[in-house]
Amino acid sequence: MNPIQRVFFLLVIIPVLASGQMLPPGDIRHPKPDSWPTFHGDYSGRRYSPLNKINSANVHNLTLAWVSQVSMTPGRNVGGPGPEPSSRSANTRGTPLLVNGVLYVTEPNTVLAIDARNGREIWKYTWRGVPAVALGNRGVGIYGNWLFFETYDNHLVSLDMKTGAERWNKELADVKRDYFSSVSPLVIGNHVIVGVGGDFLDVPNFAEARDPETGAVQWHFWTTAHEGDPGFHTWPNKQAVEHGGGGVWYPPTYDPELNLVYIPTGNANPVMAGQSREGDNLYTASVVALNPDTGKMAWHFQFSPHDTHDWDAAQTPVLFDGVINGQPRKLLAQAHRSGLFFVLDRTNGKHILTAPFVEGLNWYKGIAANGQPIPDPMKEPQIAGALTSPNSNGSTGWPNPAFNPDTGLFYVGTQQSYTIFYKTDLDAQPEGYSGTERGGGSVMTELRAIDYQTGKIAWRHKTNIGAQSLLTTGGNLLFGSDGSGNFIAFDAKTGEPLWHAGLISNPSNGPITYMLDGYQYVLVAGGEFLYAFRLQD
Amino acid sequence: MALVVAVLANIAIAGAQGPPGAGGGRGGGRSGGRFKIYPQEAIGRGLPAYNTACGYCHGERGKGGNAGPDLIVSLVTLHDEDGVQLGQYLKSPVHAKVVKADVPDNELFDIAAYLHSRVQYASGRGDVHMDMILVGDPKAGEAYFSGAGGCSKCHSPTGDLKGVGAKYNPATLQERLVMPRVGRGGFGRGGTTDPNAPYATVTLPSGQTVKGAPVRVTDFDVVIRLADGTTQTWARNHGIPKVEVTDPLQAHIDIMTKLKDFDMHNLTAYLATLK
């Protein structure tokens, strides 16, 4: 969008769209207390809500308001080319969105509208898909009266929010090439930002903007630098680029003032054998900052150059404003799967801080002047094995961290792990995974709070889980779990557990919070159940 | 992307069921039923048929050659079922203008079966090359065993490790010397019969201690399995009762965090000599 189009959009299109809309576009940028309109609640990825009606002084009175079992029995609204789906148990890993008292919950082939006041199903949409990689789904995106949903087999489906009726569906990528989709679409202005993943058969991955009205492609960004792109020289040849991976399987974040969308990308392909892709392999395992109107890249930063350990950068690029050396700065922080915590200047991608957030990392030789780790080639998967920390699951993972501006702390679920990486495909042109890991284990799992200014650990709390999804609030609270089925409210400043509820299974998604009818609710999924909590009257 | 797949690979997506036995890949269990499984007999016949009809141009194992592209990631292969689309492509002008390939229909099915098996293989993790694991120096491994590694404090080549080199393949040997138990282990049902399983000591406010296998230890409860097989549970509050988990394999955990690859390879080579 050029400046004139932008003014037209703001002054003419938005008011027209907003009349009678379920979610006026401005309410995404400035979420109302009674809504959770994007994957992270707002564009920043902080997973921070200023709500404080539930706080560290009264959280001990938090009690169950309702519990709901997510039903996978096919609904009235169906779509897709596949056979009639059979029923299965839900396992909710996505983040529900909330608008006008209705929660929108997803499974890889299902969207449900659920009454946020009582947990009852309002409508359900079932996608009849074809065989594909069965990953979780992160959730829907909302634009006006419409929902957007990526099916696991790579279709972007648009639904009517009120009824669940399908408006259209568009194929994003060829499922036969083993692409898969799991991202929750991010709506920015009149763009629906989507992405696809796939690292089983060496495909090049991409992000796209789609038109919310028609589903048409507005722009397309390859996450492996193609010929003519600035990063093309980091690949040995075109063949490597066109099979180079870089999946977009985790939702981006966005800074409206800078008008940059920050897309985290997956690992390079072939996954564990790098002999056919010498070089850094941009823009895999990176964050790329794009103009959402054009898809043009402003900058990139690679967290794991020439990755051979399956360490995607598919963790949240968390955006917040902070103070570095006494100066206010616009920051982007990521706790990367490789065990390093990065703080960047999000205006230009310049490095500010790189520090390990777990102990025992042995895969890099040092930190370069630009803040990137210098990988130790001897810790790449070896034919005879390389004992490496962390393992491919990483020191953390896709479950979202959180940042609380009141405490200045970055919260993340962590693990210290070891494994023996083996290279299995010795061909000059390896394919697919091309390596494996055996043995080792986890020696530490903790919830940790990181001081973003120093990278030092402010507090730690032992858990039985590594990566986990978190929520922090203006009530000095951090909601998370212990990996043993307990949903826990921690004191955000100290890490002390203040309240807990034993669920049927461990929390499986990122908790959200919102106001309804004067009550602050906290909602979390645990497997096939949704649990809503509020203070006792 | 291992974390997600490891967690979710076993979820059967509605509408995504493949043929019986589909899935697997190279031992990673990653395929989720999306590949059609062909009979081994057809795959076996397909290999020589492929080599005769296609191998010259498309290279060994379909990975591409001097004259033809990689067939494992070829859209023609990926969109083929039972050799039908493959056959149509071979007869099309696009292929015919490069080379005329007269492949009998019965061989097309077998070649397709072979190529699809290669696709499935590529999507998995592959097998460790067992014959290439023993790269270390057995004598250096023996010295490490008896010296810096401290292994001889608990183990003996003529005692508990006698014959260990014949008992395990090289990769398993290497894996077990690093950590005999995968993960921290012990939580769950174990502990009553395995001398190497972790055990918990619960100290009650009275000072009484109770020992057992840790089934569950959280901030809010502790469950241990007693020697008689029964379980006992206590609620916990602010760390009371106190719970201490002891791992008999702590020495391996300590070694794992500092072991160098050359020491690991030398040790593996040494242990492999203990036939």
Overview of the structural elements:
The complex is a heterodimer of chains A (537) and B (275). By secondary structure, chain A is mainly beta. Chain A has a single domain, classed as Methanol Dehydrogenase, Chain A (8 Propeller), CATH 2.140.10. Chain A has 3 helices and 37 strands. Chain A has a 5-stranded mixed beta sheet, with no helix packed on it. The longest helix of chain A is centred in the N-terminal third of the chain and has 16 residues. Chain B has 3 domains: 122 residues, Orthogonal Bundle (Cytochrome Bc1 Complex, Chain D, domain 2); 71 residues; 50 residues, SH3 type barrels (Roll). Chain B is elongated and about 90 Å long. Chain B contains 12 helices and 5 strands. Helices cover 37% and strands 11% of the residues of chain B. Chain B is of the alpha+beta class and 275 residues long. Chain B has a 5-stranded antiparallel beta sheet with strand order 4-3-2-1-5, with no helix packed on it. Classes of the chains: A mainly beta (537), B alpha+beta (275). Chains A and B meet through strand 28, strand 29 and strand 34 of A and helix 1, helix 7, helix 10 and helix 12 of B.
Short description:
Chain A has 537 residues and is mainly beta. Chain A has a single domain (3-535), classed as Methanol Dehydrogenase, Chain A (8 Propeller). Helices cover 4% and strands 39% of the residues of chain A.
State the CATH topology of chain A. Methanol Dehydrogenase, Chain A
CATH architecture descriptor of chain A: 8 Propeller
Output mean pLDDT of chain A.
Answer: 94
Approximate shape of chain A: globular
Total number of helical segments of chain B?
12
**How many beta strands in the DSSP annotation of chain B?**
5
SSE pattern of chain B: HHHHHHHHHHEEEEEHH
Secondary structure topology:
The complex is a heterodimer of chains A (537) and B (275).
Chain A (H helix, E strand, L loop, with lengths): L2 H16 L7 H4 L18 E2 L12 E8 L7 E3 L17 E3 L2 E6 L2 E6 L5 E7 L13 E3 L2 E5 L4 E6 L5 E6 L14 E3 L2 E5 L10 E5 L6 E6 L15 H4 L11 E3 L4 E5 L21 E5 L6 E6 L15 E7 L2 E9 L4 E6 L5 E6 L7 E4 L5 E3 L10 E3 L13 E3 L4 E15 L11 E17 L5 E6 L8 E3 L3 E5 L4 E6 L5 E6 L9 E5 L2 E8 L2 E7 L2
Parallel strand pairs in A: 1-31, 3-7
Antiparallel strand pairs in A: 2-37, 4-5, 5-6, 6-7, 8-9, 9-10, 10-11, 12-13, 13-14, 14-15, 16-17, 17-18, 18-19, 20-21, 21-22, 22-23, 24-25, 26-28, 27-28, 28-29, 29-30, 31-32, 32-33, 33-34, 35-36, 36-37
Chain B lengths: L1 H7 L31 H14 L1 H4 L16 H4 L5 H8 L1 H4 L8 H19 L14 H9 L17 H4 L2 H9 L20 E5 L5 E9 L3 E5 L5 E5 L6 E5 L3 H7 L4 H12 L3
Antiparallel strand pairs in B: 1-2, 1-5, 2-3, 3-4
